[in-house]
Design goal:
three-stranded antiparallel sheet, about 10% helix, binds zinc ion, globular, two-stranded antiparallel ribbon, mainly beta
């Protein structure tokens, strides 16, 4: 993977989803600290992972996270 496109953004989904790091069920629309991490490159399918506010904060401050990924939305 030479060039990788990454994005980290808050997606206020109204549905309850599981954090990809700690597994907690939460509603992203009610957790302004939650983040969706997506990573893709031209020659790889890429991945998307959701982090709750607590995990996103720990990760941002340097804690390594093992994330359960969800399939990227078809676009
Ligand atoms: Zn979490």
């Amino acid at each position: 993977m030479a060039n990788v496109t990454v994005s980290l953004k808050h997606q206020p989904s109204p549905r309850e989803l599981a954090c990809g790091a700690c597994g907690a069920q939460f509603v992203p629309a009610e957790d302004s600290g939650s983040r969706v991490l997506s990573m893709k490159s031209a020659d790889q399918p890429g991945f998307v992972a959701l982090m709750c506010g607590g995990c996103a904060s720990k990760w941002a401050y340097g804690t390594a996270m093992t994330l359960t990924t969800i399939p990227p939305a078809a676009s």
